[in-house]
Write a structure and sequence with these properties.
The chain is mainly beta. It is 4% helix and 52% strand. It has a domain at 238-336: Neuraminidase (6 Propeller), CATH 2.120.10. The protein is built from one helix and 28 strands. The strands form seven sheets. The chain has a four-stranded antiparallel sheet, with no helix packed on it. A four-stranded antiparallel sheet has the order 4-5-6-7, with no helix packed on it. A hairpin with a 4-residue loop joins strand 9 (126-131) and strand 10 (136-141). The termini are far apart. The relative contact order is 0.11.
Amino acid sequence: MNVLPRSLTLAASLIVGLSGCADRPDWLQPINYEPPPLPPRIYVANESTNDVSVIDATTFQPVGTIATKNHSTHDLAISRDGRRLYATNLASGRISVIDTRKLETIASIYTGERCHVVALTNDNNQLWVANIGENTISIIDTTTFRILGTIPVGKGPTGLAFSHDGRFAYVSSQGDKSVGVIDTSTHQVVKTIPVGANPHFLVVSRDGHVWGVNTGENDVYVLDPETHEKVGTFVVGDKPQQIAFGYKGTQGPLAYVTVGSQNKVVGLGGDPKNLKIVDEIAVGEGPNGIWSNPEGTRLFVAHDKGNEIRVIDTGTGQTLATVPVGRKPIRVVVSR
């Protein structure tokens, strides 16, 4: 029979005794290590280089580039804690799941032909992806990365956003020139709203209104979140692309729209039923993606022809920084 030395027996007894003690010393307490939160970052989807540029949102210095391991990277969604980034890839029909701490793609999920836009549900538990080539939305579990199901929608879905209360999802369909309203509890399209030619990205304002652009025409439109009716429209110029909200001094929030044909950003204010131009900012060539910081004092504008991001002070309209990115940047998101 093997017998432990007396010194080891005493040590083992001591550890067992301490492990059952409620007031164990600090040096024996279990360590629950939580990595420090990441600083705010700017993420840019570059369609022609199949990657995502990462920029420090405070210093505006490049942090790195993430290969999506797919093709034609188009849209982005960032988790609320900033730890996961999701990118659509048009040519691959796949979602790239990115670990933002490691700056690498950790999973690739096929959702459907020409997956175009992506949005996270308000609880962060599901990822909804619009597939242009199949006229569907795929629903993905963000923990298991399993596809939970699909929802048939209009022809060529190109925009996707959720209401503040999470009860409805809005999807724009370029083939139908409309926005469909989906009940998120039943996954049924409960209403279809005509909006105009080639509706594209959608965004929900701070007061809950749904804003969209008609890239095939020259206007933006506003949908009421209660009635699901179009309550406003305004001509901003040919090829409006995306919208973000910010303040110009005490004015706002304004809806800042990138106008691709005019190399400028137009700021709209007023009631949705009576919109007016409050601000105009000259930017670089081919403005497309746009995002704002939480305070609404900075705009981050991607230029799909200039291959750069410009950081703009909304109070002065001045460019604070210009950062080169990959080729044909389409979408910008900023973590908090």
